[in-house]
Write a structure and sequence with these properties.
Elements lengths: L1 E2 L4 E5 L2 H10 L5 H5 L18 E2 L13 E10 L6 E2 L4 E3 L2 E5 L5 E5 L7 E8 L3 H4 L3 E2 L3 E3 L2 E5 L4 E6 L5 E6 L14 E3 L2 E5 L10 E6 L5 E6 L31 E3 L4 E5 L21 E6 L5 E6 L15 E7 L2 E9 L4 E6 L5 E6 L39 E5 L10 E3 L4 E15 L4 H7 L8 E16 L6 E7 L8 E3 L3 E5 L4 E6 L5 E6 L9 E5 L2 E8 L18 E8 L1
Parallel strand pairs: 3-32, 5-10
Antiparallel strand pairs: 1-2, 2-9, 4-38, 6-7, 7-8, 8-9, 11-12, 12-13, 13-14, 15-16, 16-17, 17-18, 19-20, 20-21, 21-22, 23-24, 24-25, 25-26, 27-29, 28-29, 29-30, 30-31, 32-33, 33-34, 34-35, 36-37, 37-38
Length: 571
């Protein structure tokens, strides 16, 4: 183990294997990312369109009951940590890349199918207070590099063969509390990153970096400053916009035909005190469509103006074509945190429809079918009065699909034309805590800037659902005992995979969503599975380990200790 000037520590194990890998592993080109091979998993969502779908069908609904653990790789055990493993492993020609909750990235040789050999790990130096509650959602592959961004705001390009640093860019300002947990995305000759820590009182932004050098080419501020369009939707008598949130929690999806990125932004900050920031608060709780070459805004749509209930719109946008009202349209669709499946025209930003997918919902009386905004929205006022809105005077009870699309990606099956997601009804009682700009300035970078006091929560009804992506209507559903935040993975074999907080890893029928198989691994899952093939044999991989189970209101889940274990399954 050697110290590096790049503020990271690297360990190289099995150097001979690493040198052999350089000859066996193909270069990840833009053309490969545009047309990914079924045997590999080259981006966190499987493709640029965000589908989380695999054309592999060796594991299918007729034989998935025979699935077993092929091998496991222990990446670390930290019972004291409060972080969550939410990364999706990438696989290129038998070599797997994965990050854990500490922002440590590992390269693992999985080519034998019988064991995983760690070839190298890179452990960036992260302040301890960030690691304790850390999340890292994966890396990007481009050329012969691994692109890794960290909770401390660093973006690093690593040599894929030995883990050495090729370039680094301190894109986020650590002193302001800026950092990353959203995965980077490699597009053309660039790397796209987005600042993630909005709930800690930071200002959101998305940046395009030069893939060869790491230097910034463009930056789009999701909370516009003075002189930028949209700044007028923030208070004019204070600077709370500097801490305004609107960050990126998961990497964007990308439409190569139009060179357009789609990003869902998080809630404004402070999350539960809209009275501190009267106005619509652009571009928070929104969809933003950016030109990938310039970072210029093509269009935007704000779903929940002056949001005071933490209704992030951070779910990845699925990109697909759908027949709607007799004609084929180019659309994006996603599961909103409030509890709807939304559909919009991806070229114009026109709202098409929103279908409710949760049972309990009284935060708003509905979505206006013409405007796409809550029916209570009044563009003529600064402080919105939704059906249930947070106040400073008394606790307010409200229900919405608060965890419907919190931080996990959906799946889309192009043959069946179905979109899959885990859905959780959640009722909460909240009260706003008054906020000042001075408070935000003093506490920027800390979770306390959310400024809300939760006085009660009931979370019971959880299910996996499939919707018609042309209408958003639910076509299949199956109850799940515990609230799951492990995003589904759909396959051509007729199976949907997902993990659960009680340690279960399950396979469901793509048509009926009947559970076909499960295995309890004894480690909670909040990460998302990927599938790949080596030597003609299909494998399914998922990273286990999370403190979320120990923090659950369900007492039987509190026994779980935090760990990082990569599980790989095969027939």
């Amino acid at each position: 183990m050697s110290s590096r000037s790049c503020l990271c520590l690297a360990t190289l194990a099995g150097g001979l294997l690493a040198s052999v890998a350089a000859y066996a592993e193909g270069t990840v080109t833009y053309q490969r990312l545009l047309n990914p091979e079924p045997q590999n998993w080259l981006t966190v969502f499987g493709n640029y369109q965000g589908w989380r779908y695999s054309a592999l069908d060796q594991i299918n609904k007729s034989n998935v009951s025979g699935l077993k653990v092929a091998f496991a790789v222990t990446l670390g055990v930290r019972p004291d940590m409060q972080g969550q493993n939410q990364a999706i492993p990438l696989v290129n020609d038998g070599f797997l890349y994965v990050t854990d909750q500490t922002s440590t990235v590992s390269k693992i040789d999985v080519s034998s199918g019988r064991a995983g050999t760690v070839l190298w790990t890179v452990n960036p130096s992260i302040p301890p207070d960030l690691i304790r509650s850390g999340v890292n959602r994966g890396v990007a592959l481009t050329g012969n590099m691994v692109i890794h961004n960290t909770m401390s705001g660093m973006v690093m390009a690593l040599n894929r063969d030995n883990g050495d640093t090729i370039w680094e860019n301190q894109s986020g300002t650590l002193a302001l509390g800026e950092g990353f947990d959203a995965n980077p995305l490699a597009v053309k000759d660039m790397v796209i990153v987005g600042q993630s820590f909005g709930d800690q009182g930071t200002r959101g932004w998305i940046a395009g970096l030069d893939g060869a050098t790491g230097k910034q080419r463009w930056r789009f501020n999701t909370v516009p400053g003075p002189g930028e369009p949209g700044h007028e939707t923030w208070p004019s008598d204070n600077d709370i916009w500097k801490y305004g949130g609107g960050t990126m929690w998961m990497g964007p999806t990308y439409d190569a035909d139009t060179s357009r990125l789609f990003v869902g932004t998080s809630n404004p900050s402070p999350a539960y005190d809209p009275e501190a920031r009267p106005g619509d608060n652009l571009y928070t709780s929104s969809t933003v469509a950016l030109n990938v070459d310039t970072g210029k805004l093509d269009w935007y749509f704000q779903h929940f103006p002056n949001d005071g209930n933490e209704m992030d719109e951070i779910s990845p946008r699925l990109i697909y074509d759908a027949e709607i009202d007799g004609r084929v349209r180019k659309v994006i669709g996603w599961f909103s945190k409030i509890g709807y499946y939304d559909i919009m025209d991806r070229n114009s930003g026109e709202f098409i429809s929103a279908a409710q997918v949760v049972t309990k919902l009284d935060l708003t009386l509905g979505i206006d079918p013409k405007t796409g905004k809550p029916v209570e929205y009044n563009p003529g006022v600064k402080l919105q009065q939704y059906n249930k809105h947070i106040t400073r005077t008394a606790p307010v009870a409200w229900c919405a699909g608060h965890r419907t699309a919190s931080v996990f990606p959906p799946a889309y099956h192009p043959d069946l034309r179905r979109a899959y997601q885990m859905v959780a009804d959640q009722c909460r009682t909240m009260q706003s805590v008054p906020t000042t700009v001075a408070f935000m300035e003093k506490n920027a970078g800390r979770a306390s800037t959310t400024q809300g006091k939760e006085t009660g929560r009931i979370t019971n009804e959880t299910k996996i659902i499939a919707v018609d992506p042309a209408t958003g209507k639910t076509v299949a559903s199956n109850p799940i005992k515990y609230q799951s935040m492990s995003g589904p993975l759909a396959t051509k074999g007729g199976v949907v995979f997902a993990g659960h907080p009680d340690g279960r890893f399950s396979a469901y029928d793509t048509d009926t969503l009947k559970e076909l198989w499960y295995l309890n691994l004894g480690t909670p899952f909040k990460a998302h599975a990927a599938t790949y093939a080596v030597g003609g044999k299909q494998y399914v991989a998922i990273l286990g380990g999370s403190s979320g189970a120990s923090q659950s209101p369900d007492p039987e889940l509190k026994v779980f200790k935090n760990s990082s274990i990569l599980w790989v399954f095969s027939l």
